[in-house]
Amino acid sequence: MSTAAPPPLPATAPVGEAVLSVRDLDVELGGRRVLTHVSFEVGAGQFAGLIGANGAGKTTLMRVILGLQAPARGSVHLPGTVRADRHGSRPVGYVPQKFLLDPDIPLRARDLVALGLDGHRLGLPLPSRAKRERIEEMLVAVGAETFADKRVGRLSGGEQQRVLIAHALVSRPRLLLLDEPLANLDIRSVREIVALISRLAREQQVAVLISAHEVNPLLQVMDRVVYVASGRVASGPTQEVIRSEVLSRLYGQHVDVLHVHGRVLVVAGDGDPAAPGEDITVTHTHGTP
Amino acid sequence: MTGAAAVFAPGFFSSAPVHTALALGSVVAIVCGIVGVFTVIRGQAFAGEALSDIGAAGGSASFLAGVAPVWGFLAASLAAAAAMEMIGVQRARGRDLATGIVLGTSLGLAALFLYLDSTQQTGSGTTVTILFGSLFALSPSLIPGVAALSLIAAGAVCVLQRPLMLSSLSADLAAVRGIRIRLLGVGYLAALAVAVALAALTIGAILGTALLVGPAAAALRLTRRPGLAMLASAALGVLAIWIGVLLAYDSYLWPDPGWPVSFFVVALVFLFYLGSGLLGPRRSGQREQGSR
């Protein structure tokens, strides 16, 4: 899934066994540079949060990682995986940003999971026991067995999210990308989905990169943070990144990181008139208790 | 008299035009049923209508050239599909506008060709045949060609059904699995053009979309599974053709004899659609949001 021949890079020692390494990525959208010098890695089994405000470039970054968009410069490596396995075992599972499923589409939840296994195949879908068992196993894993035979377009937002996660994981990828899976969910669903993804990551032995504009719901489960702001990223272990010094440098202006009842508040400071950059006021209002 | 005689007017089972109408009509209804399911899912009903109207220009032109109209329908709708693809069928806003303009122009061309047809062949029903079809007037010699075209269009959609379904849900989900979205879209549009040409042959260029979209829309309400939807859609189409042919044949004994078969087919499709709304799952108003 790497793109055009990467330019010579400063040799950076790979950390452990990386399932995703992004090196010195520049990304342009309509001639405008939206991401500059983006480098980070996600190791096997790690749970990484891609955090940033709406419009910071999280979706764009995910699209580049998935090969849906070419970067202006730099490369994406998914080591240990070739582009596509013949047996449908894809290196990357993907849950796209919330999209509207037509309520009338003739597709049960289990059919959508099946498409995660063989949706790219030609010909008539022939039933097989192995396939049926794998689908059933995945439906149970995401807690979708009670609505497995309902039309997927008529499920609630939280239920659809579960089915889409099963769709993404059924082919046993080593990396799961989720684009804003918590947006538009109520607080209880947010908690359930985060717990589910965290559990699946361990059970299915899959590394996770999950994007969110809100850091708090993920604080308890994240190993690493990839924080996007001002077209750049800061990445590392959660406690090392969500700090005033790091985020201030990233935003290009003073930012306070406040800890309140186990939650984090990232607040733009107003005491630095020399600070460049736009007005950023990132306040997080609700989160997991 | 028995009940069967009351339903089937004398000579129905021995009439050669009825045999041809049933054979061709059934094959076309099956193709339209299968292809139409994805027309509805992909929201391309308007594109289908446009291809059909553009086909009318081709069908009427082929009369002038002395060729069977099915080839005119086919050539025109395939060319139109290619044009729509080049104009940018992927971009919704430009698509409807471009399609609408091309559609209007083609109907204008069809008007001219139909006028020229009528000056050349005195008293012919060319206009009615092209626009509204005449299933009973079809030649049995068309059967092999129609069967071959049907096999191509329906076969392509059956083979591509899983990638088509996935890309209809989300282009990104499909692209991540290595599906070439653009190529798939072109392939589907070509199958749609063939189905539309066949529909135009049976129930006319103006009414063709009814056979394409109607049974499919009804089937989507009746079943939750992709394969069953395609089967149900094809079955409803065939049913509409059969009952339509029967009623049209019977109508020769009515006070105003010889009602057009296309009318019956379209009316039945409409009734099926209404009926599916009553039988199918009740629309629960708005979709739930958040957790259940």
Describe the structure.
The complex is a heterodimer of chains A (289) and B (292). Chain A is of the alpha/beta class. Chain A contains seven helices and eleven strands. In chain A, the strands form three sheets. A six-stranded mixed sheet of chain A has the order 5-6-7-3-8-9, with helices on both faces. In chain A, strands 2-1-4 form a three-stranded antiparallel sheet, covered by helices on one side. In chain A, strands 10-11 form a two-stranded antiparallel ribbon. In chain A, β1 (18-29) and β2 (32-43) form a beta hairpin. The longest helix of chain A has 17 residues, at 187-203. Chain A is globular. The two termini of chain A are 39 Å apart. Chain B is mainly alpha-helical and 292 residues long. In chain B, 76% of the residues lie in helices and 0% in strands. Chain B contains 13 helices and no strands. Chain B has helices spanning 3-7, 16-41, 45-65, 69-87, 92-120, 126-132, 143-159, 161-169, 171-176, 181-203, 208-222, 226-250, 261-279. Chain B is globular and about 60 Å long. Chains A and B meet through α2, α4 and α5 of A and α8, α9, α11 and α12 of B.
